[in-house]
Structures are given as C-alpha cells and as structure tokens.
Amino acid sequence: MKNLGILLSGRGSNFEAIAKNVAAGKIPEARIAVVISNEPDAGGMAIAQRMGLEALLIPSKGKQRQEHDGEVVAALHQRNVDLVCLAGYMRLLSPWFVQQFPRRILNIHPSLLPAFPGLEAQEQAFAYGVKIAGCTVHFVDEELDHGPIVVQKAVPVLETDTEGSLAARILEQEHIAYAEAINLVLTESFDIAGRRLVRR
User: Fold this and answer.
1) Beta-strand relationship, 83-86 and 149-156
2) Is the whole model's pTM more than 0.90, yes or no?
3) Other CB atoms closer than 10 Å to residue 196's CB: what's the count?
4) Which domain holds residue 136?
5) Same domain for 194 and 120
6) Annotated catalytic residue: which of 109, 138, 146, 175?
C-alpha cells in the first residue's frame, strides 16, 4: 500500500475526487496519509476532516519559501509519503523540494500542456478561441507546468460555451485523469524517454 500526500490551497475539488476514488477502491494501491494546506481557510481542509483524514495546516504567509518547503517536506517524510499530489496548491515548489521526491510529485493543470501554462488556463484557452481544450496530469520538475506528461484528457469547446461551462466540463475530466495518472504512477508500469512517458 502506497501513501499519498495531498497539497492544496483552495476548495479541494480534485483532492475530494481522489479521496472518493481511493475509498471506492478505484485507486487500490493507495491510502491518503495526509492532506496539507498552506491556507487556513482552504475548503479542502474541511473536506479532509469530514472524511476522517489527517488535515495539517502549514501556513506559508510571512515565511521564506525555503523555510516553508522544509516544513512541508518534513511532514511528508514523517508520514512516509510515496507520492505527492498537488490539488490546487497555489505555490511554486522550490528545486530543492522537487529533488526530495524525484518523479514522485504529480500536478494537474486545466489545459493541454504545453499550451496555456500558469494561472487562468481555461480563460486563456477560451480567449484564444481554441476548438479543443482539456487537462493534463504531469510530473513536477523545477519549471512551471513543465514536467513529463502522464495523462491528458481533451474537451471540445462548444459554440455555446462560456468560460464557466468550459471550466466545469474540464474539471469533470480532471477528476478522471488524476485517478488514472495515480494508478499508472503507483504501478510503475512506464518508462521516461526524454520528455515522453511510455507505458510498458
């Protein structure tokens, strides 16, 4: 059984989907060891407490990144976390943090990377007029929204879409993609060739 550590800063929608998939046996190799937030009022913390999971607040406000990253990494190591899942974690991880969990940090981004990295990806895609949007689960490396891609899901942009309706449909696919990516990474049934993840 592998231990997951979830990092979040907000409502925790992707975390909740992961937790429900774990509880339903759809991510059979995993248990959630800890949910960590840097924000005291993050909605995901209340969800974690309601589900009986350890919810740990490690505030980032007023701290140097090095100090905060050190506290988070220590908490993850104390709980023997095998895979770190970022679920709306609104902080860039330092290169040192990434090096503590090589190829063991996943992030989800609401675009088909490398298109539209950074904040407000759905709004960027909508404004750009793309016909296909989607989401990407990728390994985290030292650069923003950059590491090898694990899973992508495409979402057609409809003529009737608004930014909100497109974002909602992408979010549905995010919940599916994240579980798929966690299962793939935990089974270690892949190789990385350059930037490409190749399933065995």
Assistant:
1) unpaired
2) yes
3) 10
4) 107-200
5) yes
6) 109
